[in-house]
Design goal:
The chain is an alpha/beta fold and about 260 residues long. It has helices at about 30-45, 75-85, 90-95, 110-120, 145-155, 155-165, 170-175, 190-200, 205-220, 220-235, 240-250, and strands at about 5-10, 15-20, 50-55, 60-65, 100-105, 105-110, 120-125, 130, 170, 180-185.
Length: about 260
């Protein structure tokens, strides 16, 4: 598939998806969202891909959110119709049974913040900023922001960010638990690649179970989540990778995982 609004590269078991509208601060129109979904589906279905990275072209923005020019023509009915039954990257990323890293190299606002939050980890440059400014253009966050942000930064801070639209710095995002690491811009790629190396050394099969278990913890009561965890824990012992991991531990050597 030929992409017009993103760059898509697979190299060394990693799929790199780059939002490529730097002149628009990588704002998300429907074409871009469709292409992100297509790339994510390809990466999900490719057994050779172990880790997925999302980032933005240029050094100004990961993504400034939705393309506001679309808001002039949208109606309540058109938005409901277009979203009904459609895959959206914000939810789809959470369903992918592989680690997904957001490499945030600038502004992550609105849908950009939501896209980053949907990833399993966020590694940001010092100049990154995170926010949900939708209130300033007459709407509320529509890409899971009102649901995920409170879970990450707490109810009160989430209300402040959503009600005022004010962004926060990368350092504050780190303090609040919104991001995993903040590094100088010239160290961003290097830091992401270090994390990729760690993830690639783990079992793909067990990482899948780990992601499913953490997802369940955010979607169900504690008692249900604990029961799900116990089931997934048991399923680990049905994999070849579990045996290999235990054997390698006792033989004091790096494990050789196959994802089975």
């Amino acid at each position: 598939m030929k992409f017009e609004t993103i760059l898509y590269e697979k190299k060394d078991n990693v799929a790199w998806i780059t939002l490529n509208r730097p002149e628009k601060y990588n704002a998300q129109n429907q074409e871009l969202r469709n292409e992100v979904i297509a790339a994510l589906e390809d990466a999900r279905n490719d057994d050779g891909v172990l880790v997925i990275v999302l980032t933005g072209a240029g050094d100004k923005a990961f993504s400034a959110g939705a393309d506001i020019s679309n808001f002039l023509d949208w109606t309540a009915i058109s938005v409901i119709t277009s979203n009904k039954g459609a895959k959206r990257p914000y939810s789809f990323i959470r369903e992918i049974p592989k680690p997904v890293i957001a490499m945030v190299n600038g502004m992550a606002l609105g849908g950009g913040c939501e896209l980053a939050m949907s990833c399993d980890m966020i590694i940001a440059s010092e100049n990154a900023r995170f926010g949900q400014p939708e209130i300033s253009v007459g709407v509320i966050p529509g890409g899971t922001g009102t649901q995920i942000l409170p879970r990450l930064v707490g109810e009160k801070k989430a209300r402040e960010m959503i009600f005022t639209g004010d962004p926060i710095s990368a350092e504050e995002a780190l303090r609040l638990g919104l991001v995993n690491k903040v590094v100088p811009a010239d160290k961003l790629r290097e830091t992401v690649e270090e994390m990729i190396k760690k993830l690639k050394s783990k079992s793909p099969a067990i990482l899948k179970f780990a992601k499913l278990a953490v997802n369940k913890s955010l979607e169900t009561p504690l008692s249900v989540g604990i029961e799900c965890e116990a089931e997934l824990f048991a399923m680990c012992f049905g994999t070849q990778d579990q045996k290999e991991g235990a054997k390698a531990f006792f033989e004091k050597r790096p494990p050789k995982y196959t994802g089975k």
